[in-house]
């Protein structure tokens, strides 16, 4: 008895899509989440984190807080809070800083920060359920901040309106700068990511911090590609941010962004899993169901990787399914094809081979090509 061939592994919800990752921290974690769901990942850190353990500003601020204890300390990130304690240890001030923090109202933004606070042997007074700095601000203002001295552990990016609101309420605010964002030392990966975005080689671009978004925009401006980048993000490349603060530099440039309800990597990936497949055109062609994804097509549920030239042709045909598209128009869609219409025939042959569904694309002699749209199947889908 002949054994049945093993069933093909099911593709993930992001199979066929390419997602750009700009994160510096936790980039490997985000890339792994995306890859497990089938995505191809292009990673280029848009910035780097520079710890300030030897920075005179952080040292001076720490001495000032130990000498003159604040009323409230707001811890905003786990990595920043740990870095502050470690830096103080290195300066011989670790115990003094911990003693100071034990005597203040210590607020922790979210569970990870709470974990870092407790790992240091401290106990937070309160932590918001939403993990939102806006909720922290509301609590402080509701309590009344007039005459209070509030220290805020900064996390490398601005907190729009936060400090200003506290000062307007009468508080004295002290910033604790535990690290800074800087441009990457090697700009080549970021340039490749930028080029891929502009050329629509990406289906989505993700951001996990406002400085990363600002850094990509600045690099695009330096290279004269800002308008092209904004056009790509506006029309073709889905822009997903981990939260509303991260989105601010992009929204200031008119880019529409999406963010998950919970500001975490897992929900961000879940959002991509819902949005990207929903945006993929699905067509009934010659008795098959064809879904056109970023760098592949699903033909009756089977993933078919397609080379870039073939995808350019397939997308052009899909804009007018069933209609004849002239060779000259298809030639213009091919990247770097010049004026030789033979390039269309070569790319079309490779596309048909990749799809492994010969009847999906029809040749119309002396005119061009068309997708074999099946209106009867289309009507059946509508009725189901």
Q: Could you walk me through the main structural features you see in this protein, from its secondary elements to its overall organization?
A:
Helix 3 packs across helix 4, helix 3 (78-90) packs parallel to helix 5 (111-119) and helix 13 (308-318) packs across helix 14 (327-333). Strand 1, helix 1 (27-36) and strand 2 (40-43) form a beta-alpha-beta unit. The chain is of the alpha/beta class and 384 residues long. The chain has 3 domains: 18-47 and 184-279, Rossmann fold, CATH 3.40.50.10090; 50-179, Rossmann fold, CATH 3.40.50.10090; 282-383, Orthogonal Bundle (Arc Repressor Mutant, subunit A), CATH 1.10.10. The protein has helices at residues 27-36, 56-67, 78-90, 94-102, 111-119, 133-143, 162-168, 188-198, 210-222, 226-235, 244-251, 265-279, 308-318, 327-333, 342-355, 375-383; strands at residues 18-21, 40-43, 48-51, 72-75, 105-108, 149-154, 172-177, 179-182, 204-207, 238-241, 282-285, 288-292, 296-299, 302-305, 325-326, 361-364, 368-371. 44% of the residues lie in helices and 18% in strands.
Can you summarize this structure?
This protein has 3 domains: 18-47 and 184-279, Rossmann fold (3-Layer(aba) Sandwich), CATH 3.40.50; 50-179, 3-Layer(aba) Sandwich (Rossmann fold); 282-383, Orthogonal Bundle (Arc Repressor Mutant, subunit A), CATH 1.10.10.10. It has 16 helices and 17 strands.
């Amino acid at each position: 008895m002949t054994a049945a061939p093993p069933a093909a592994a099911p593709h993930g919800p992001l199979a066929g899509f390419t997602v750009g990752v700009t994160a510096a921290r936790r980039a490997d974690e985000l890339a792994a989440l995306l890859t497990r769901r089938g995505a191809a990942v292009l990673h280029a850190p848009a910035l780097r984190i520079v710890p300030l353990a030897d920075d005179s500003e952080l040292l001076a601020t720490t001495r000032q807080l130990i000498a003159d204890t604040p009323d409230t300390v707001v811890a905003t990130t786990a990595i920043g809070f740990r870095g502050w304690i470690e830096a103080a240890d290195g300066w011989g001030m670790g115990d003094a800083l911990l003693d100071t923090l034990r005597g203040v109202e210590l607020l922790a933004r979210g569970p990870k920060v709470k974990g870092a606070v407790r790992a240091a042997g401290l106990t937070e007074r309160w932590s918001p359920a939403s993990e939102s700095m806006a909720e922290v601000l509301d609590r402080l203002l509701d309590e009344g901040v007039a005459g209070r001295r509030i220290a805020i552990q900064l996390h490398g990016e601005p907190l729009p309106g936060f400090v200003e609101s506290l000062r307007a309420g009468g508080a004295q605010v002290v910033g604790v700068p535990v690290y800074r964002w800087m441009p990457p030392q090697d700009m080549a990966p970021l340039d490749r990511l930028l080029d891929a975005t502009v050329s629509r080689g990406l289906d989505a671009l993700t951001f996990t911090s406002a400085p990363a978004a600002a850094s990509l925009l600045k690099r695009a401006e330096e290279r004269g590609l800002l308008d092209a980048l904004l056009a790509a993000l506006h029309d073709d490349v889905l822009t997903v941010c981990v939260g509303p603060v991260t989105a601010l530099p992009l929204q200031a440039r008119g880019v529409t962004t999406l963010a998950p309800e919970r500001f975490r990597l897992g929900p961000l990936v879940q959002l991509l899993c819902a949005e990207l497949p929903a945006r993929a055109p699905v067509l009934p062609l010659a008795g098959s169901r064809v879904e056109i994804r970023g760098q592949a097509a699903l033909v009756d549920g089977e993933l078919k990787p397609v080379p870039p030239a073939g995808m350019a042709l397939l997308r052009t045909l899909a804009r007018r399914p069933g209609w004849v598209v002239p060779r000259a128009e298809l030639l213009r869609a091919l990247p770097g094809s010049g004026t030789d219409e033979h390039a269309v025939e070569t790319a079309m042959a490779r596309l048909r081979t990749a799809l492994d569904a010969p009847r999906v694309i029809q040749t119309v002699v002396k005119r061009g090509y068309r997708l074999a749209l099946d209106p009867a199947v289309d009507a059946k889908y509508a009725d189901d």
